[in-house]
Structures are given as C-alpha cells and as structure tokens.
Design a protein that fits this description.
Blueprint: E1 5-8, H1 18-25, H2 31-39, E2 44-45, E3 48-49, E4 61-64, H3 81-96, E5 97-100, E6 104-109, H4 125-128, E7 141-142, E8 151-157, H5 160-171, E9 176-184, E10 191-203, E11 206-212, E12 220-232, E13 236-243, H6 250-257, E14 287-295, E15 302-306, H7 311-320
Parallel strand pairs: 8-14
Antiparallel strand pairs: 1-4, 2-3, 2-4, 5-6, 6-8, 7-8, 9-13, 9-14, 10-11, 10-12, 12-13, 14-15
EC number: 5.4.99.-
Protein name: Pseudouridine synthase
Family: Belongs to the pseudouridine synthase RluA family.
Length: 329
C-alpha cells in the first residue's frame, strides 16, 4: 500500500525552488501532476501549503503523497548514438580525473579541449559532464575555467551547494593557483609582480585581450606574481606564475607584456622574423595549471591537488634539462 513520505531538505539544497527540488528527486513526476498535488494541498512544507516557486531551506520537511515508483526514476533511454556519445564522454572524463569525493571532481584537462561552448566549439567539458549526472539528475557544475589550449587543474562541483561554496572561494580569492610556463628569454628580475588593466577587443583572429589604462571602458585590473624556477642559458625560462585575479588570458598577456611570451602561444607570442622555434619542441601552448589549493566546500580542510604535465611539456622539460620533481613539495 502506498504511503505518505516525509523528506528532509539537505544542506546543499538551500534556496532551491520547490518544483526544482521535485525535478531532482522525482524526475518522472510530470509538471501538471505536480501542480495538481500542490493546489490540492497534498504536498506540504513543514505542514503548510506551498507553491512551485517556494524557496526551501535545510531542515524543512516536505510531505510527499503517493506518487508512484515511476516518478522516482529517470526515464530509461534506448542505446542510441546520443547515449553512446555520453558513454564515450564519461570514459574521457574518467581518464582526466585525478581526484574525487562526494562534493568535488578535479580533472587534469588536456590541451585543445574547451571548458565551455563558444564559436566553432563542438565538444567541451561542460557538455561532457552531461554523462555524469547523478541519481537525482544533477549535472556536475563548472566553478571556474581555463583556456582551451592551457592544460591542467579544473575543479568541478558535484552538487549545487558545493558549487556555491567553490564559486565563492574563487570570487573572494581564497584559492592558491599555481601555473607553470616556459617562456622565451629569462625575466629580470627573477621574481616579480605584474599589475595592469586588461580589456577585451575583437580582431580578425577572434577575441584578444590587451593592456589598457585604468578607467578605460571595460578594463579590469589583473595582478600576477611570478618567479623563475630554472633557465636554459638566457634563451628560455621555466616560470611559476600565480594569478591573484582571474582575467581571460591573464597569464599569457602578462608574460608577453613584460617581454617574455609563453612558448607556443598563438595569440600573444611575437618575435623577430629571423627567430626560429626550437627544434624538438612542439608548437603548443606551454602553460599548465599545475596545482590548486582551495577550501573544501564542506568547510573541513582544503583540497590540494597537483596535475601531471602534458606530454608536449614533458618533452620540452626533457629537452631543456628541467627537473619537475625538484620543485614539488
């Protein structure tokens, strides 16, 4: 015999609309049926009547009348090209995964894979995350981005509550982001601070960031710290770069701005016409999100993860004689 249930609202569901809560917990329950149950008072929140747009809070109890087992399960779909694609995407994500718990995924993103969609982008991480929806139907959420050609650490929230906390940590700059780059030349001084304003401009080759003046329309402040870890004569340097702000292309623009562009950067690497790209080095962007330290969304401790170098940077490190193990704690 079907019975009435009482379900408690979880911590990560704070502020969720009631209809959205039902979509997560009872994905098979149709909108019309839900509205009928609400209008008749069969669904209640803490004993009181509620509407579909009622915002719920942790600890509240939701009265669930008998809705049938079909309402609790996601629609099962036959094996099609689309479902096969989701399986393939899930396999790719599994290969990228370097850390997971019940609130967070951390991926090591390869070069050439966009994080989000855009002009000319047919495959990206945000789309691939559809393959990893949980039993409630929740899709993992992006909380920050890295450039398409940049490799390394990408943090993804598994729940709505985790996304709110992680986004707050990025916004309030409670994170430590460590990037490795190989640049042309050796910066002087070997350790420094780059502070500029950046503005986006459109060019025939797509959007590009440029140095701007304080007060220019659309200009945002950008602050980066860097230090030289090792060098190959006066020709190339291995930098650790820490962005204090998170502007588009920030590290790439800042490296070029001080006269030491990142190897393989298709937008900001400018050189004399007689300069030749070093033999044995792939013409790929040599910028890698190496490490992140961020407060855990559950409020306990931190997430501290390191991403292995991509193959093209391993090749360059070997060629230049750089030892990545010498720096890691």
């Amino acid at each position: 015999m079907a019975t009435v249930e009482q379900k408690r609202v979880e911590e990560d569901e704070a502020g969720l609309r009631l209809d959205r809560w039902f979509k997560l917990h009872y994905p098979g329950l149709g909108f019309g049926h839900l509205q009928k149950l609400l209008r008749s008072g069969q669904i209640r929140v803490d004993g009181g009547r509620a509407k579909s747009d009622t915002r719920i809070q942790p600890g509240q109890m939701i009265r669930i009348p008998p809705v049938g087992s079909d309402a609790k399960t996601l629609d099962t779909k036959p094996l099609t090209a689309n479902t096969m694609k989701h399986r393939e995407d899930g396999d790719v994500l599994s290969k990228m995964l370097i850390y997971e718990d019940d609130k967070v995924f951390v991926f090591n993103k390869p070069a050439g894979l966009a994080v989000q969609g855009g002009s000319g982008v047919v495959r990206h991480v945000d789309m691939m995350l559809e393959a990893w929806r949980n039993k409630k139907g929740e899709k993992p959420r992006l909380v920050h981005r890295i450039d398409r050609d940049t490799t390394g650490i990408l943090v993804v929230a598994r729940t709505r509550g985790a996304a709110m906390q992680l986004t707050k940590a990025f916004r309030e700059r409670d994170t430590q982001k460590h990037y490795w780059a190989i640049v042309k030349g050796v910066p002087v001084p070997h350790e420094g601070r780059i502070s500029t304003y950046l503005v986006r401009e459109q060019t025939p080759d797509g959007d590009r960031m440029r140095i701007a003046q304080h007060g220019d329309e659309g200009a945002d402040h950008a602050l980066t710290y860097y230090r030289v870890i090792d060098q190959l004569a006066q020709n190339f340097a291995w930098l650790e770069m820490q962005p204090h702000t998170g502007r588009t292309h920030q590290l790439r623009v800042h490296a070029a701005h001080i006269g030491y562009p990142i190897l393989g950067d298709p937008k900001y690497f400018e050189h004399d016409t007689n300069w030749e790209f070093p033999g044995g080095v792939q013409k790929r962007l040599h910028l890698h999100a190496r490490r992140i330290v961020i407060p855990h969304p559950d409020g306990k401790g931190v997430i501290d993860q390191v991403a292995p170098l991509p193959p093209h940077m391993v090749q360059t490190f070997n060629l230049f004689g750089f030892d990545e193990a010498a720096l890691d704690d």
